[in-house]
Amino acid sequence: MAEVFVAGETLVDFVPDAGETLREVDGYAHRAGGAPANVAVGLARLGSPPAFWTRLGDDAFGDFLAETLAAEGIPETHVERVEGRTTLAVVSPPDSDGPRFGFYGDRDATFGFAPDSVPTEALAGDGKASPWVHLGGVALTHPRGRAATRELLAVAADVDCPVSFDVNYRPDLVPDGAAEAVSTAVRETVGESDVVLCSGEDAAAAGFSESEGSDLARDLIALGPHTAVVTMGDEGALAVSSDAAPWGAETVRHGGFSVDAVDATGAGDAFTAGVLSRLAGRRTAGDADGDPLREALAFGNATAALSVRSVGGMGSIPSREEVVTFLEARE
């Protein structure tokens, strides 16, 4: 059984050529993307291939994504092929104003997870420890995605799976009139998770009163999780945990690493994959020595730092060996 079970969207990122605005871009390269998909592939590259529940359209882009996931070592067991067109995310140039992503395509195909399709058998321990479950927030923008997330959380609680949740709030995907329902679902999912990851930008968009550092982390913990991780871009990351955490109550900050950045697309997902690979791996091994949270932040920041040195989210995530070598050199 895989150490981690990831659930969420896989889509196609259209990454622009050089240009300060979309009008000035001459062309795009299509890349596999979607935050949960990036995390799943990141875990595979870091030596912990996960189970991955996702939905792909039956178009040519869906074929491309299915082939990409297979090539990365992601089992096809829970990769659903459904009728509809794959969602496309057009990435804006780094220095342009406005939203970073613009979304096009069939939302039902990509985000419309069916509650009765939750792969409960993948979460049963079968005599071993149940897997760590990781969820992304974008599925909550779709009514079926919200229902499926509630069902998945209920199953995870029944079989004692630890749950991590990446808020990843995308206002452009929230339908008119659904903002309150999505915001409520985000808070409920935070409350039913063990570890929550969030950026200040996502927190502000989702309506949290605090959107910076330890204040945001404590607001998140007040909703129910035992650990909150706040990413801060080139300033690194901060984690706050309560007494309920396996590693105890602590506040840990890691300033990140200075590198020559080319493209930050997917850096947060690379960070998440790095953090989960350490925390889930320690849990499976029963390893309680050292400082798990501090080591996870360092590993996540190293993974993210290596990912921004080339273009394209999923394709730029490094291997475990590359991260270990990088950390040893920085020590």
From TrEMBL:
<keyword id="KW-0547">Nucleotide-binding</keyword>
<dbReference type="InterPro" id="IPR002173">
    <property type="entry name" value="Carboh/pur_kinase_PfkB_CS"/>
</dbReference>
<dbReference type="GO" id="GO:0005524">
    <property type="term" value="F:ATP binding"/>
</dbReference>
<feature type="domain" description="Carbohydrate kinase PfkB">
    <location>
        <begin position="1"/>
        <end position="319"/>
    </location>
</feature>
<dbReference type="Pfam" id="PF00294">
    <property type="entry name" value="PfkB"/>
</dbReference>
<keyword id="KW-0808">Transferase</keyword>
<keyword id="KW-0418">Kinase</keyword>
<dbReference type="InterPro" id="IPR011611">
    <property type="entry name" value="PfkB_dom"/>
</dbReference>
<dbReference type="InterPro" id="IPR050306">
    <property type="entry name" value="PfkB_Carbo_kinase"/>
</dbReference>
<comment type="similarity">
    <text>Belongs to the carbohydrate kinase PfkB family.</text>
</comment>
<dbReference type="GO" id="GO:0016301">
    <property type="term" value="F:kinase activity"/>
</dbReference>
<protein>
    <submittedName>
        <fullName>PfkB domain protein</fullName>
    </submittedName>
</protein>
<dbReference type="InterPro" id="IPR029056">
    <property type="entry name" value="Ribokinase-like"/>
</dbReference>
<keyword id="KW-0067">ATP-binding</keyword>
